[in-house]
Amino acid sequence: MNGPFLLRKGARCLMTLLLAVTFVFVVLRLSGDPVQRMLADDVPAKVIESYRVMWGLDRPLPEQYLRYIANVVRGDFGLSFRDDRAVATILAERIPATLKLGLLALGITLLIGIPGGIVAALNRGKLVDRVVMGITILGHSLPNFFLGILLILYFSMTLRLLPSSGIGTWQHMVMPAITLGTSFAGTVARFTRSAMLEVLNQPYMRTARAKGVQRPARIWHHALPNAAIPVVTVVGLRLGGLVGGATVVETVFGYPGIGSLLVNSVAQRDLAVVQGVVLLIAFTMVVTNLLIDLAYGWLDPRIAATQSGAGA
């Protein structure tokens, strides 16, 4: 792991962010004039034009794009079209809520997915394997909105144990975290099982067994480290997608995070906020992918040597 490798990865990260911002910038503006969508039909044309001038939408599209990129580089994401507040401020208000929900959901994912996949692999073909994988597939197959509604109907409407929407206490996070984490747990469990089965069939595992290494030691010291790379990949991708993936869950539960902000901003044609949220999601994915590459080198020194050799 050396300087040239990190520089290459950093350049790719910047290019990815630039492409994401460019795509959203162009698509949002090709979908129609946001001013006309935000104002009533009977608003005079002069008023509409004044708003377009105020928000810089009267300028040519290339000029709007260059000005926006220049402002983003300086940390200025613009002002919300709705309440004239800085987009960075709006995002800063919503990020903690989504971060708490995402980390709690990730914890549920890891606690269910990784042990479930390991247990299923170690009992391949047995009843335990079929039960565990059946549960994980069911959790993965249920749409987030459907599972969320079921939880609301049972725990909020029937038992009246948990609040159905809002934020403020730990009870507000229970159902959204379970809904988000359950779906991810199914994917992680399936990848963990596949990775473990592949490792358990390797010659070095049979050699360790022939040398008399006890099963717990074989699993802990030989199987798990070698099966970790594909698991780290899928967990990392899920972690990076938690911000965007929480959109449906936050909408169902009325949870005031980044996901619900994105939905509301799209509906209101608040371009500045939409662009800021998309840039945040892209940044999260890019940073997560970079961390995954770094984790590869830590888990497998051979990969680190290859990366260093490629950067030499």
UniProtKB/TrEMBL annotation:
Topology of this chain in the membrane: Multi-pass membrane protein
Keywords for the protein's UniProt record, in alphabetical order: Cell membrane, Membrane, Transmembrane, Transmembrane helix, Transport
Superkingdom in the source lineage: Bacteria
UniProt subcellular location: Cell membrane
Main location: membrane
Membrane-traversing stretches: 101-122, 134-157, 169-189, 271-292
Gene3D superfamilies according to UniProt: MetI-like (1.10.3720.10)
PROSITE patterns attached to this UniProt entry: ABC_TM1
Domain ABC transmembrane type-1: 95-296
Keyword Hydrolase attributed: no
Family stated for the protein in its record: Belongs to the binding-protein-dependent transport system permease family.
The protein's name in its UniProt record: ABC transporter permease
